[in-house]
Recover the amino acids of this structure.
């Protein structure tokens, strides 16, 4: 029998990737989110190139200066370039945002997976514990942990990561609970697959898209969390720049130079919004239930 | 000796609402190269019986009895031993082809996995063998299909892939649980044709679980009719269709549409009971035209009415 080929010769993997890309590009908000998020990430990585001044270089001849050709967003109370500080400050935000979510994933996914897949008393213990932890609002939990761990960027990241663990455990557990009942899991058992193989091949790969979406959506929460911790003095310590630290410093000059508070606030807003839009877009293209 | 010998198999589900007796002291044998049809309405315990043999039932199921396969009691064997039998010596094909394949991997990858695990083949060999298997189940352009994902295949194609996967390790027994129920009639015929071909070519013994007597007549050598977890009748296929003894079998035959016949299809009134307790009467009595005092107070045991023809009824015989 001859097989009539209608589609251009492409491997299915490549075809699937192309379909996903096309679906993504059809969502303008998601594309904007991706672009803005990339700008922030690149800005953080390339801070030494992008920022015109060092974050701590003071210019006492221009204190609380307005935006000018020398200082794009003006200067702060010590004559430091605000634009440069925002660029350097994005490093703390991106680092805390991305690393804390990765950390939370590494801890939460195996725990939630084991609970949902194996059920039994392990599940009961883990589910109740996450319920207890989820009773604390995320930020309260993170603030408490950061206070215990001591103020520094890595401790703030750790605190935010731990704070995000219970929610992620619950998501991984819920996915595992649903996936273990799938027909293909039953078929794999009937084909002689062991528990580990079923988890590695049939459960984990099928929850990846959900985890990717959840991870992306958690990043803005962690970015805001880092700003809050730094604002409260529990995160990045001055003079190292961070959007939270800048907000905190700007407080005393709110009447003289409100823009000192507006710029870092705007940065936090744009950065977290972009990751949120990106996450929503990913959910739309990866979750078949919302596909139009 | 039979390929598979099942003795006194009972399955009970312990639920919060009490126990349900799904299978009650069922004994049967499966010979080499044989196609055994297992027929009954939904809920009569036919799927549960064969799921229990490979211990695929949830933990709420309490299974007793013996199931001897190659000198091993499947019901008592340690799990690692059983895993080497599952899919390698006894393979299952399930009813739902649409959802029985993992959406995350290509067809070739999934067939290859079984080969790599059970036969220790390398990636390249597994791929070559997977291609042969797709060819065996008559999938056109098999080399190309290997790299496709399940969602790119139709239901009939997917069921062929499931059968290919089941046949991957040349099993001695293929258990097909309603393999055609979810498919179009034209596709059904193709799948049945394929199964007949597999028996001829590979000598695989096949258990065909179905509620469709027409399917059984087409392909089976021997038939077991189940009702409420028990064997109602067992006979070679020609004997069963020529001289059905149990009123339930007769009822099922009356419900098979025949081309050309102008008479109305007969239905069996009522439905299969789910048994919370072991019965003290014939389970079919409430629906049976022949029921009398005896059937309502005693459980009929199996009797041999002709060589190889067993029936559990106090009033057997043609209608």
């Amino acid at each position: 029998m001859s097989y009539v080929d209608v589609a251009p010769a492409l491997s299915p993997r490549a075809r699937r990737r192309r379909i996903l890309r096309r679906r993504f590009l059809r969502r303008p908000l998601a594309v904007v989110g991706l672009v803005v998020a990339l700008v922030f990430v690149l800005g953080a990585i390339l801070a030494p190139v992008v920022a015109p001044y060092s974050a701590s270089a003071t210019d006492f001849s221009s204190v609380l200066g307005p935006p000018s050709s020398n200082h794009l967003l003006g200067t702060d109370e010590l004559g430091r370039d605000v634009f440069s500080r925002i660029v350097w400050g994005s490093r703390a935000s991106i680092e805390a945002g991305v690393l804390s979510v990765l950390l939370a994933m590494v801890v939460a996914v195996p725990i939630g997976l084991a609970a949902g897949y194996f059920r039994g008393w392990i599940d009961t213990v883990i589910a109740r514990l996450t319920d207890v932890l989820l009773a604390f609002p995320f930020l309260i939990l993170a603030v408490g942990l950061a206070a215990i761990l001591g103020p520094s960027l890595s401790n703030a990241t750790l605190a935010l990561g731990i704070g995000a663990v219970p929610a992620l455990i619950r998501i991984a557990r819920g996915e595992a609970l649903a996936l273990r009942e799938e027909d293909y899991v039953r078929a794999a058992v009937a084909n002689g697959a062991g528990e580990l193989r079923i988890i590695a091949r049939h459960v984990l790969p099928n929850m990846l898209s959900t985890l990717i979406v959840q991870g992306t959506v958690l990043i803005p929460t962690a970015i805001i969390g880092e700003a809050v911790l730094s604002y409260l003095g529990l995160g990045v310590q001055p003079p190292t720049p961070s959007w939270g630290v800048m907000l905190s410093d700007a407080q005393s000059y709110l009447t003289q130079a409100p823009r000192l508070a507006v710029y870092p606030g705007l940065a936090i807003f744009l950065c977290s919004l972009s990751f949120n839009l990106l996450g929503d877009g990913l959910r739309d293209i990866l979750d078949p239930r919302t596909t139009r | 000796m039979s390929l598979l010998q099942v003795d006194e198999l009972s399955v009970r589900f312990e639920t919060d609402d009490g126990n349900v007796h799904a299978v009650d002291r069922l004994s049967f044998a499966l010979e080499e190269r044989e196609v055994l049809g297992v027929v009954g309405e939904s809920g009569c315990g036919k799927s549960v019986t064969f799921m229990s043999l490979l211990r695929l039932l949830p933990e709420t199921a309490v299974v007793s009895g013996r199931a001897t396969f190659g000198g091993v009691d499947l019901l008592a064997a340690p799990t690692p031993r059983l895993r080497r039998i599952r899919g390698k010596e006894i393979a299952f094909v399930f009813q739902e082809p649409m959802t029985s394949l993992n959406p995350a991997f290509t067809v070739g990858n999934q067939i290859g996995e079984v080969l790599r695990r059970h036969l220790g083949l390398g990636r390249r060999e597994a791929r070559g063998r997977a291609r042969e298997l797709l060819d065996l189940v008559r999938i056109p352009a098999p080399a190309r299909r290997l790299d496709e994902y399940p969602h790119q295949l139709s239901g009939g194609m997917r069921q062929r892939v499931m059968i290919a996967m089941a046949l991957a390790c040349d099993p001695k027994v293929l258990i097909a649980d309603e393999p055609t129920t979810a498919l179009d009639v034209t596709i059904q015929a193709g799948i049945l044709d394929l199964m007949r071909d597999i028996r001829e070519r590979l000598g695989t013994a096949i258990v065909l679980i179905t509620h469709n007597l027409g399917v059984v007549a087409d392909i089976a050598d021997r038939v077991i009719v189940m009702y409420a977890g028990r064997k109602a009748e067992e006979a070679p296929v020609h004997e069963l269709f020529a001289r059905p003894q149990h009123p339930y079998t007769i009822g099922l035959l009356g419900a098979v549409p025949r081309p050309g016949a102008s008479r109305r299809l007969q239905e069996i009134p009522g439905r299969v009971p789910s048994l919370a307790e072991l019965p003290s009467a014939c389970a079919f009595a409430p629906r049976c035209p022949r029921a009398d005092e005896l059937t309502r107070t005693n459980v009929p045991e199996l009797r041999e009415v002709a060589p190889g023809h067993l029936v559990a009824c106090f009033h057997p015989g043609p209608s």
About this structure: Chain A touches chain B through 23 residues (CB under 8 Å). The two ends of chain A are 36 Å apart (CA to CA).
